[in-house]
Design brief:
The protein folds into 3 domains: about 1-225, no CATH class; about 380-445, no CATH class; about 450-575, no CATH class. The chain starts with 8 loop residues before the first helix and ends in a 17-residue tail after the last strand. A hairpin with a 2-residue loop joins β3 (about 505-510) and β4 (about 515-520). The chain is built from 22 helices and 7 strands. Strands 1-2-3-4-5 form a 5-stranded mixed sheet. A two-stranded antiparallel ribbon has the order 6-7. The protein is of the alpha+beta class. The protein has helices at about 10-40, 40-45, 45-65, 75-95, 110-130, 140-175, 180-185, 190-210, 210-225, 230-245, 250-255, 255-275, 285-320, 320-345, 355-375, 380-395, 405-410, 410-425, 425-440, 450-460, 470-475, 540-545, and strands spanning about 460, 495-500, 505-510, 515-520, 525-530, 560, 565. About 65% of the residues lie in helices and about 5% in strands. It is globular and about 95 Å long.
Length: about 575
């Protein structure tokens, strides 16, 4: 494919000078913003303006640096101005949605990441369309520009990192002979910001001049990645085939099932594209990649479906949180890929041709979804606060069990406004809301006063007809650090009964996060007497729910030495370890 960039040495020199100037100006402005941020009082007064300026200064020059020479100047100016307006609006919203600036006046970490993703996708949609002078460009053009710039940015980051290593090495050499001025200079912010941005601009220009080198690195990287596709496809297929035998409970116990499944799906998408590349291979695609790509595309459906089910279960149990809203957004974008890739895989020839349209469509969908998340219509905090209040109002969660600290510390201005409404309404919820308003430290969430009602709601008892002793639920525990979360905070666990001591009195077993803790009543108090470690053996908790468990005598007796009891620790002897399904 022909390259639209200028080849004349004079043009490249002028572009290089412009890039260095842009990099220098960017570094100077970033340094000035840093100086403003050091004055917390002043920066707090202008937080919206500061956040907007920080985003624009960080990202708009990058658009110019990458776009110079490959995008027409008129298009580049319009795109840079539009991006600056959008970034400024996002910065203002981010600053005003958070009541407290915990990280100073700078935009939140999530905004930095999501804004970068949106700009990267949007820039290459615009650059490809500009290169071919039409709204929707050919897929090879999208592929060429996006991967070229992606490799450029990666190499530029590596170049800047090596630049700083060289500076520190030079400073160390001068330190060795008693000259410390160089180290003093490179530690100064007024030097660090401009030097970093100028070197980044120089790296982008140098890699732009050596376009053949970029193309070679890209080809090698994609080829290596492509051959990981059959491996991950086989692992994902084996995982899905094992689920009917293991059940979903072990997956849910990880408490990160949705993130794990979405991560696997995203990696498959990347590897499929590494194998497909621009859809115009110089030679036939090897059979392992062809069949691996088809199967991987089909596997996206169950992976995304399981992730959606995992999020739905958590939302149904505990309502929306900002993390779950973002998870739902990821599922929506992932569903676009999964549907399009599956349709492409079902067609015999040409191989996965349909993913070209899917990638373009999903890219636009990702921009829309992310911009919605970063603005009031789908702000994760706003949606989460509204859903939690709905659960409180319709009785899904009681006033005693409701998480008021979520509104106080994670709901932003929406949560604070919700607390004020609850206080105004009065009642039990109003009292709890007023108490949450008085807390000034998010760590104090763990210091909530646990009531028997909260613990009873936390703990699912098996079998259903059994109940936990009132004394167990009311007890104030002295060794709180060793307890499962359900006894000291709002967190779920399961309770079982079993006579572990042989005195015909059942002890209480609490199962949480893959660990079972045992409690015995001693002198009117319940004491933690030990832990049972089920390890990675699947189905153990399910068997306990069915009542399929009973105390068993120890395999090894304790040793009494002069009145002191020694207990054998079998964990250090591989032959003595119990295996899943064996005594």
């Amino acid at each position: 494919m022909s390259d639209s960039r200028p080849d004349a040495p004079e043009d490249m020199r002028s572009i290089g000078a412009a890039r260095l100037l842009i990099g220098l100006l960017q570094g100077v402005v970033l340094y000035l913003l840093w100086r403003v941020a050091e004055d917390r009082l002043w920066a707090t007064l202008i937080r919206p303006q500061f956040a907007a300026a920080a985003l624009v200064t960080a990202y708009v020059p990058l658009i110019a640096l990458v776009g110079l020479g490959s995008v027409r100047l008129r298009t580049l100016l319009i795109w840079a101005v539009a991006a600056a307006l959008v970034l400024a609006g996002l910065g203002v919203h981010d600053a005003t949605r958070a009541v407290e600036a915990r990280g100073g006046p700078w935009p939140s970490f999530g905004l930095w990441v999501f804004a970068a993703a949106v700009l990267f996708i949007a820039h290459h949609l615009i650059a490809a369309a500009d290169a071919e002078r039409r709204i929707v460009a050919s897929y090879p053009r999208y592929f060429e520009i996006a991967w070229r710039n992606g490799v450029q940015l990666a190499l530029s980051c590596a170049f800047v990192g090596v630049f700083w290593l060289v500076l520190h090495l030079g400073a160390a050499l001068f330190d060795a002979i008693g000259i410390g001025q160089m180290r003093d200079v490179i530690r100064e912010r007024w030097f660090a910001f401009p030097a970093t941005s100028v070197m980044a601009a120089a790296a982008i220009h140098l890699t732009d001049v050596r376009s053949g080198l970029i193309r070679g690195i890209r080809t090698v990287a994609l080829t290596l990645l492509a051959w990981l596709l059959p491996l991950l496809t086989a692992l994902a297929a084996a995982f899905l085939l094992a689920l009917p035998f293991t059940g979903l409970e072990p997956l849910w116990r990880t408490r990160s099932a949705a993130a794990l499944l979405l991560g696997a799906a995203a990696t498959l998408i990347i590897l499929i594209n590494a194998a497909y590349q621009d859809g115009q291979p110089d030679q036939p695609t090897p059979a392992p990649l062809r069949w691996g790509g088809r199967l991987a595309a089909i596997l996206l459906i169950p992976l995304i479906g399981l992730a959606a089910y995992a999020i739905w279960l958590r939302v149904d149990q505990h309502g929306l949180t900002p993390e779950r809203v973002i998870g739902i957004a990821c599922v929506l974008v992932g569903a676009c890929y999964a549907l399009g890739y599956t349709i492409a895989a079902m067609r015999a020839v040409p191989w996965l041709k349909g993913l070209e349209a899917t990638n373009i469509t999903a890219g636009v969908a990702a921009i829309v979804v992310v911009l919605a998340l970063l603005t009031p219509p789908a702000d994760p905090a706003r949606l989460s606060v509204a859903d939690q209040l709905r659960r409180l109002e319709n009785g899904t969660v009681s006033a005693a069990e409701f998480d008021y600290d979520f509104l106080r510390f994670d709901g932003g201005r929406y949560g604070r406004a919700a607390l004020e409404r609850l206080v105004a309404q009065g009642g039990a919820a109003g009292e709890q809301a007023a108490e949450a308003q008085r807390r000034d430290n998010p760590r104090r969430r763990a210091e909530i006063v646990m009531t028997p009602e909260i613990r009873r709601a936390n703990i699912k008892v098996w079998p259903d007809e059994r109940t936990l002793p009132d004394g167990f639920l009311r007890q104030e525990w002295s060794n709180a650090w060793a307890l499962p979360a359900c006894l000291k905070a709002k967190a779920p666990c399961e309770a079982f009964f079993g006579d572990l001591t042989g005195d015909s009195v059942a002890e209480i077993l609490l199962s949480a996060s893959g660990t079972i803790t045992a409690y015995q009543e001693q002198g009117g108090r319940w004491e933690l007497i030990g832990r049972l470690q089920p390890g990675n053996c699947p189905g153990l908790v399910e068997a306990m729910r069915d009542g399929n468990f009973a105390p068993a005598p120890s395999r090894f007796a304790d040793l009494d030495v002069a009145g002191r009891r020694l207990r054998l620790d079998a964990s250090v002897a591989p032959l003595a370890r119990a295996e899943c399904g064996r005594p």
